[in-house]
Structure formats: structure tokens, C-alpha cells
Amino acid sequence: MRTMPSVLIVEDEAAIAELIAVNLRHNGFRPIWAMDSATAQRDLDAGLPDLILLDWMLPGESGLVLAKRWRGDPRTQTVPIIMLTARGDEADRVAGLDAGADDYIAKPFSTKELLARIRAVLRRRTPEQAGEVLTIGKLVLDPSTHRVSFDERPLKLGPTEFKLLHYLMGHAERVHSRAQLLDKVWGDHVYIEERTVDVHVKRLREALAQAGSMVETVRGAGYRLTVTPTPSPATAMATDKAGI
Ligand code: CA
């Protein structure tokens, strides 16, 4: 049987943390509460949770600063983060996502919605963490053997292209901005230009040959891996993602 997924709640307001913890416990999760950034860091050093619920407004370092740091650290890079905040602004939402948060929920929220989001984020993250073989159409990626094939023909990919494809296949059909890809694939984009993403996407398409069209450019938004590519030129889509 699976162990209960652990959720680190980083929240300075005891009443909110307690409400979340009670609901998580009732729904088969193991909550851990940290009331400030220093405690949260100590908890993470002691062991990685399955997910982090991170409040934006914290005494000392803000949730945004913490999200960026944890995304930049190879050890905590893959732990999903949902940001909790009273800020509902579009700009703040985008800043949270660009800092590496997987999702965002504005206070006040219903615990039902919070649980649904936690489950959704855990579902999306699972294939990558488990090292399972990913299959999108005829494209197959095996993380354990580092092999990629299309229509049963093996393809040769560089290490960055492999990581990029792994991420895109694990989160297929969703649009990712260059800033998000830098955070998720490169881990720390402080010294890397966003153009780097374009270079590797181009190489990835070349390496994928026939399957290259599955990596779509979504104008003004970023990139997406899809099983049903739109005939080129890639269609512009209205999205709320920023970073381009
Ligand atoms: Ca707070």
C-alpha cells in the first residue's frame, strides 16, 4: 500500500494552517506545519515532502523568494509547490508561476478546491517522479534507460533536449512560457537567457525529425507538446501566461 503523501504547509497564520492540516489529515495526507521560512527550510533539510503549500506573505523571506530558491536547488527542484495567498492579481499570479509554483490559490479558498488542486498537482507530477515510461501518441520516452523513440524508431537526443522533452511529455498539452521552462528544466535561470530555450527547442525538433511538429510554438505564450499538432505556422492563442 502507498504511504500517505506528506504536505509541508508554510503558513504563519495558525488558524489557517490548522484548518488546512485538519482537512488534509481527514483526506489521507500527512500535514507538516512550518510557521516561517527558517522552520520550513529545516523541515526540507530533514526530508522532502510530496508537496509544499506555500503562503506568499510570511514574516522574513516571502513565499515568492522561497519558491525561487527551492526551484533553483537540485534537491528540492521536483517538489511541487502550490502558492497560497491573499493576492489575486494577475501580475502576482504570473510572478508566482514564474517563480516555479505549480499552481496558485487565492485566499479565501474552499478546502474542497484546495484538495482538488493538491490532487491534480500530485497527479501531474507522478509520472516524472516515478521514472515511468511516458507515451504521447507514437512518441515514447523511457527515463530509466534514457531512450526516446518515435513509431518504434530510436531517436538520438542531447542531455538538455532529453530533459526538455521529458518535462514537456510529463506536462503535455499545456503551454509553458520560456521562463517556466528555464525554471523546470534548467532549474536556475538567473544566468541563462530565455533565448537559450529557443535554441534547445530547435535542436529538440531537429532530433525528433518527423515528430518535431509535436513541439508547438504558441505565439506570445511559449511552447507546448501536443499529440495533435496544428498545421504550421503555429496558431497564436490567447493565453494568460506571461514571460514572453
Ligand atoms: Ca501569511
Structural overview:
Helix content is 40%, strand content 19%. The N and C termini lie far apart (44 Å). Helix 4 links the parallel strand 4 and strand 5. The protein has two domains: 6-125, 3-Layer(aba) Sandwich (Rossmann fold); 134-225, Winged helix-like DNA-binding domain superfamily/Winged helix DNA-binding domain (Arc Repressor Mutant, subunit A), CATH 1.10.10.10. It has helices at 14-26, 37-46, 63-72, 90-98, 111-130, 159-170, 178-186, 195-208; strands at 6-10, 30-34, 51-55, 81-85, 103-106, 134-136, 139-142, 147-150, 153-155, 215-218, 222-225. Helix 6 (159-170) packs across helix 7 (178-186). The longest helix is centred in the middle third of the chain and has 20 residues, at 111-130. It has 244 residues and is of the alpha/beta class. It contains eight helices and eleven strands. The strands form three sheets. The chain has a five-stranded parallel β-sheet with strand order 2-1-3-4-5, with helices on both faces. A four-stranded antiparallel β-sheet has the order 6-7-8-9, with helices on one face. Bound molecules: calcium ion. Calcium ion is lined by residues 12-13, 55, 57-58.
